[in-house]
Each structure stands twice: as structure tokens, then as C-alpha cells.
From TrEMBL:
The lineage of its organism: unclassified sequences, metagenomes, organismal metagenomes. Residues 5-76 form the Tex-like protein N-terminal domain. The keyword Ribonucleoprotein applies. Keywords: Ribonucleoprotein, Ribosomal protein. InterPro entries: Ribos_protein_bS1-like, Tex-like_HTH_dom_sf, Tex-like_N. This is 30S ribosomal protein S1. It comes from termite gut metagenome. One of its GO terms (biological process) is translation.
Length: 127
């Protein structure tokens, strides 16, 4: 959570305290227009666009975090996870870079023909 606040603060150039206060209001269920109109003292005078950007960035980082967990789990199940790879995945916060790292380890889709070959049906097809 604190890491997300730092990342959002760096990307939007808004003080971390304002980010933290805005996210806490959003988590309580307050809407963006309500926060920008009636909670200016809490957010430090952020407008609707800035609050929307904060919410968008937070959602993006949450999605990336979940994707990282999935990728780490998948690679670990294959037995191909090294400490260097784990570190690279954990340090990146760009979804494109994350997917590029994962690409060589991504499971391939099985076609119907591959499934049939695995079941031993290829000799029948060649008759």
C-alpha cells in the first residue's frame, strides 16, 4: 500500500500525504465528485481530474501486483523460477515489461491435434 502511494506520487507529482488521504476516502466509498467538492481540506485541494488519475493509477498498480503473483506462481510451478528472475519480476511496475519477462515461460495453448497425439491417436489419422 505504501509502495503504491510512493509510485503514484512519483508518477503524478503529487505529495504522498495527499495520495494517502485521497485513497482512504475512495476506500470508504466516497465518489470522486464528492471528494473534490466537499473534502478539499482532506485532499489538499485536488480537483476531479487529479483524483481520477490517482484512482486510475492505484487500480493499475493493484492489477499489476495481482498479475505478478500469478506469473510468479506459474513459473514456480514449472520449476523455472530463479532468484534473479523473481527479483526482475518483483521490481518492475510496467505491465508491458512484465509481460515481456513472462513471455518465454508462458504456457502454450494446446491444439486439438496435439491433444489427439498425446492420447495416441496419430497412427489412426495416418491410415
Amino acid at each position: 500500500m505504501e509502495l503504491f502511494n510512493q509510485l503514484i506520487s512519483a508518477s503524478l507529482n503529487i505529495p504522498e500525504k495527499q495520495i494517502n488521504n485521497t485513497l482512504s476516502l475512495l476506500k470508504e466509498g466516497a465518489t470522486i465528485p464528492f471528494i473534490s467538492r466537499y473534502r478539499k481540506e482532506v485532499t489538499g485541494g485536488l480537483d476531479e481530474v487529479q483524483i481520477g488519475n490517482i484512482k486510475e493509477q492505484y487500480d493499475k498498480f493493484c492489477d499489476i501486483s495481482k498479475r505478478k503473483e500469478t506469473i510468479l506462481k506459474t513459473i514456480e510451478e514449472k520449476g523455472q523460477l530463479t532468484e534473479e528472475l523473481r527479483k526482475r519480476i518483483e521490481e518492475t511496475w510496467d505491465s508491458t515489461v512484465l509481460e515481456d519477462i513472462y513471455l518465454p515461460y508462458k504456457p502454450k495453448r494446446k491444439t486439438r491435434a496435439e491433444v489427439a497425439r498425446q492420447k495416441g491417436l496419430e497412427p489412426l489419422a495416418l491410415i
